[in-house]
């Protein structure tokens, strides 16, 4: 049974908040658990989740006033500030600071190195750009020019998974639950992107105006998210999976549990919502070297930790 979060003793009257989802993914567990366990309500703020299906639209929902806050990749922040130095968007409240993607291949390859991608039929994620931008820098660090790879770029993760099983590809880039499903079909994980260390992946985002206007509500949300992260790190995988299962009706709870069990030791989820500089700078450098941004907007300019106090 899901235990609701404990309600704070002192609760001030707050305005309801609309929270825009970027898209549905298992690695967003902290955000889902916070809502389903009533962690925000326990801090006195009513939060409504707006379903998302197109990652690029989450920030637009905030900019256009359909939501007060969204979650999504700091990558979107970097692109926005690269295009417009006066962009009002800011990141705050980190939950995912590890890369949730993997390279999965046909059969075991325990001695795999990224330089071994040379000559392999390799497919990268097409749905979002961050996984490939980040992996490019890892490949460079391992002594291989990523531009030299024969890379399949147009298939979805589902299409690439089917091609891998059919023997049409050698290795693909995917996240959970594709990884666990592929393992059931004889494939194996060759590389976990989270092994590079902290990388900025998912935080709240809103405008500077909203951060001022809704400071009490956002501060309460950060408290709720922080307590959820504490719960997540102290709770068995099976219980976490059962908690978020209502938002994944198409997935068996055992598959969600396996995904959580795979992610947990990789430490992709933060201990607190504080957003430090290192993960931001690692992604920013990867995007810069990949040519995705022409300048580095900077952690100090784009991240607001002031509501953590």
Automatic annotation (TrEMBL):
GO biological process, one term: thiamine biosynthetic process
The UniProt record lists the keyword Transferase: yes
A Pfam family it matches: NMT1
InterPro entries the record matches: NMT1/THI5, SsuA/THI5
Keyword Transferase on entry: yes
Pathway it works in: Cofactor biosynthesis; thiamine diphosphate biosynthesis
Domain (SsuA/THI5-like): residue spans on this chain: 29-238
Annotated signal sequence range: none
Gene Ontology MF annotations: metal ion binding; transferase activity
Catalytic activity line of the entry: N(6)-(pyridoxal phosphate)-L-lysyl-[4-amino-5-hydroxymethyl-2-methylpyrimidine phosphate synthase] + L-histidyl-[4-amino-5-hydroxymethyl-2-methylpyrimidine phosphate synthase] + 2 Fe(3+) + 4 H2O = L-lysyl-[4-amino-5-hydroxymethyl-2-methylpyrimidine phosphate synthase] + (2S)-2-amino-5-hydroxy-4-oxopentanoyl-[4-amino-5-hydroxymethyl-2-methylpyrimidine phosphate synthase] + 4-amino-2-methyl-5-(phosphooxymethyl)pyrimidine + 3-oxopropanoate + 2 Fe(2+) + 2 H(+)
Keyword terms: Iron, Metal-binding, Pyridoxal phosphate, Thiamine biosynthesis, Transferase
Alphabetical list of PANTHER family matching this protein: 4-AMINO-5-HYDROXYMETHYL-2-METHYLPYRIMIDINE PHOSPHATE SYNTHASE THI11-RELATED
Oligomeric and partner information: Homodimer.
Function as written in the Swiss-Prot or TrEMBL entry: Responsible for the formation of the pyrimidine heterocycle in the thiamine biosynthesis pathway. Catalyzes the formation of hydroxymethylpyrimidine phosphate (HMP-P) from histidine and pyridoxal phosphate (PLP). The protein uses PLP and the active site histidine to form HMP-P, generating an inactive enzyme. The enzyme can only undergo a single turnover, which suggests it is a suicide enzyme.
UniProt record similarity statement: Belongs to the NMT1/THI5 family.
Protein name: Thiamine pyrimidine synthase
Organism annotation: Rhodovarius crocodyli
């Amino acid at each position: 049974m899901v235990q609701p979060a404990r309600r704070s003793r002192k609760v001030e009257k707050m305005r309801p908040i609309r929270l825009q989802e970027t898209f549905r993914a298992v690695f967003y567990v902290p955000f889902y658990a916070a809502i389903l366990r009533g962690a925000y309500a326990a801090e006195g703020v009513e939060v409504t989740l707006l379903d998302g299906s197109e990652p690029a639209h989450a920030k637009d929902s905030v900019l256009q006033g359909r939501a007060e806050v969204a979650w999504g990749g700091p990558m979107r922040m970097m692109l926005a500030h690269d295009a417009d130095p006066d962009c009002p968007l800011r990141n705050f409240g980190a939950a995912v600071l590890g890369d949730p993607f993997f390279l999965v291949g046909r059969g075991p390859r325990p001695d795999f190195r990224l330089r071994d991608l040379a000559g392999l039929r390799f497919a990268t994620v097409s749905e979002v750009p961050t996984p490939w931008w980040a992996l490019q820098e890892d490949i460079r660090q391992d002594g291989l020019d990523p531009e030299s790879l024969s890379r399949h770029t147009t298939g979805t993760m589902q299409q690439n998974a089917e091609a891998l099983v059919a023997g049409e590809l050698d290795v693909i880039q995917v996240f959970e639950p594709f990884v666990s499903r592929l393992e059931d079909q004889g494939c194996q994980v060759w590389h976990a992107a989270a092994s590079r260390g902290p990388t900025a992946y998912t935080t709240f985002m809103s405008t500077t105006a909203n951060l001022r206007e809704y400071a009490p509500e956002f501060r309460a949300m950060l408290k709720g998210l922080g307590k959820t992260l504490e719960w997540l790190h102290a709770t068995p995988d099976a219980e976490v999976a059962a908690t978020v299962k209502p938002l994944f009706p198409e997935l068996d709870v055992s598959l969600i549990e396996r995904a959580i069990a795979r992610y947990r030791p990789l430490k992709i989820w933060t201990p607190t919502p504080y957003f430090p500089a290192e993960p931001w700078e690692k992604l920013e450098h990867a995007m810069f070297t990949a040519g995705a941004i022409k300048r580095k907007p900077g952690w100090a300019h784009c991240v607001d930790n002031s509501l953590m106090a």
